[in-house]
Amino acid sequence: MASVLGILVRDARLIFREAIMELEKFYTGLADIFEVSPDSINENIYFDNETFVWDSLAIVSTLALADECFGVILSGQLLFECESVGDIVNLIEQRLR
Amino acid sequence: MNSSDPQGNLIVSHVSIKGIVSCVPPEIKENHQFGEFFSNSEVDAVCKFTGVRERRIASENVSTGDLGLRASQTLLKTLDWRPDSIDALIFLSQTPDFLFPPTALRLHGHLGCKNECVAFDVNLGCSGYPYALFIGAKLLDGMNIKRALVVVGDTISKVVDEADRATALLFGDAATATALEYCSEGLESCEFELGSDGSGYSNLAVPGSGFNRGLADILETRQKCYRPGKLFMDGTAVMEFTLSRVSEVLKKYLSREESTKTDYFLLHQANRFIIQTLIKKLKVDENKFLFNIERFGNTSSASIPLLMTTNLQQFRSSPLNLCLLGFGVGYSWAMATITLNPACHLEMIEYDI
Questions:
Q1: Helix residue spans in chain B (DSSP H)
Q2: Inter-chain CB proximity B273 and A64 less than 8 Å
Q3: What whole-number distance in Å separates Cα of residue A26 and Cα of residue A68?
Q4: Which of B11, B198, B223, B331 is the most exposed place for a label (fewest CB within 10 A)?
């Protein structure tokens, strides 16, 4: 029983670690799109009209990036409605479930 | 003579492509000249994304049919084909000379083709060239139809909304003529995969260009910005389509043994980002993909044959196995795998009034 639990915990950690790595890759990609340094991207970044401009170019690029990192094709319309990086991550999570 | 292979693809044999001539307007419009409409940083960002540096734009008095006529005349002369030897004339475009008559008939008249020649227009866009090859190849029967002239092109600049950053800096004009001939000997064959998804018809369109009001109503309901009579493009929806459907078509082809023999992939020059995303997603050798979008922009239905005339000249010593893939408006897509013989004439010309 204990060993089964051990395997489950180990698998969960592996999946968790993979997800973290993909998220890091995704954030690096977003940093490229907004032309900022990777460490300035986090879930609490809200889009604005100066640095984090959420225009059609950014949306199309993010569509391709999410497909590359997570293998999901997001809805362009739902992406358009996102107001923050956290909103995009939520969309991806919904699709992965 | 037509058959279907186990994968369900359409194979048409006894078809030889004798020549392709493309015709572009001589005027070069560089994208950095557009500073008056958009900020320089906007222009830079869009051009970096699309890969377009300059384009050819037809003058007001030059139509798709005019460019197609010049391409056809040059092609027939070079191949020494008499106009009365053509049995079928197909004109494919989204920007024809008129709503009616068909532009094919204008070309038929100007070229001096015979009365027995079949002539008609086809309304398709970015998927158009492989589609037109399919139609032309299918018509050839070796008896009544031995030669087909396939004219494919667009002058999208005529319907572009100058205020729309997404399209104003992207599209260029060009028309092309391709000569197809029935060959009884040899094993020249073309393979096609064609498909449609009409659920995407409203995402790339010119609302108000015909007699239907419904499309404008749909765009208004969806709160999309559009101008009647001008090109509307929902770029993110088109990207969704490319990443899902177009990627599947290419992936399916790449999974087949024959794909390893492909020398070059010629994708519709939609924009550089889309093509590079596909290359990255499918992990294919980038060197096998040809580009000319930096010099001509997205020329809609003409982009693949234009690319053949601008980028294949240097590889003409032996037969070339090519995979042509067009996709877009409709949504519609078409893939053709063909062998191009060294004898096939390839040429680009310029025309203005």
A1: 40-50, 64-79, 103-111, 128-139, 165-168, 214-221, 235-241, 247-254, 272-282, 293-296, 303-311
A2: yes
A3: 9
A4: B223
Residue burial B262-289, b: 16+ Cβ < 10 Å; e: rest = bebbbbbbbbbbbbebbbebeebeeeeb
Q: Tell me how far apart the alpha carbons of residues B107 and B72 are, in angstroms, rounded to a whole number.
A: 9
Interface predicted TM-score (ipTM): 0.84
Using CB atoms within 10 Å of the CB of residue A78, give its burial: 0 to 12 exposed, 13 to 18 middle, 19+ buried.
middle
- Burial tier of B225 (Cβ tally within 10 Å: 0-12, 13-18, 19+): exposed
Instruction: Give the three-state DSSP class for B164.
Output: coil
Angle at B159 between CA A64 and CA A81, to 5 degrees: 35
Rounded to the nearest angstrom, the minimum Cα separation between A55 and chain B is 11
At A33-65, the pLDDT tens digits run 999 999 999 999 999 988 899 999 999 999 999
Q: Specify burial of residue B119 (Cβ count, 10 A radius: 0-12, 13-18, 19+).
A: buried
Per-residue model confidence as pLDDT tens digits over B195-226: 999 999 999 999 989 898 888 888 888 877 88
Q: Are A79 and A63 in contact (CB under 8 A)?
A: yes
Q: Which of B49, B243, B280 sits opposite A57 (nearest CB)?
A: B49
Candidates A63, A68, A77, A81: best to mutate against B (most CBs of B within 10 A) is A63
Chains A and B form CB pairs within 8 A to the count of 44
Interface check B251 vs A, CB under 8 A: no
- The single residue listed with the structure tokens 């040429």 is B347
State both tokens at A26.
């995704």
List CB contacts of B52: < 8 A, sequence separation 6 or more. Answer: B31, B169, B170, B172, B271, B272, B293, B294, B297, B298
Q: Calculate helix-pair angle for B272-282, B40-50, nearest 10 degrees.
A: 40
Helix (H) or strand (E) holding B178: strand B173-182
- Residue B207 burial (10 A CB sphere; 0-12, 13-18, 19+): buried
> Which pTM does this prediction carry?
0.92
User: In angstroms, how far is the first alpha carbon of chain B from the final one?
Assistant: 44
At which residue do the structure tokens 């300035």 appear? A40
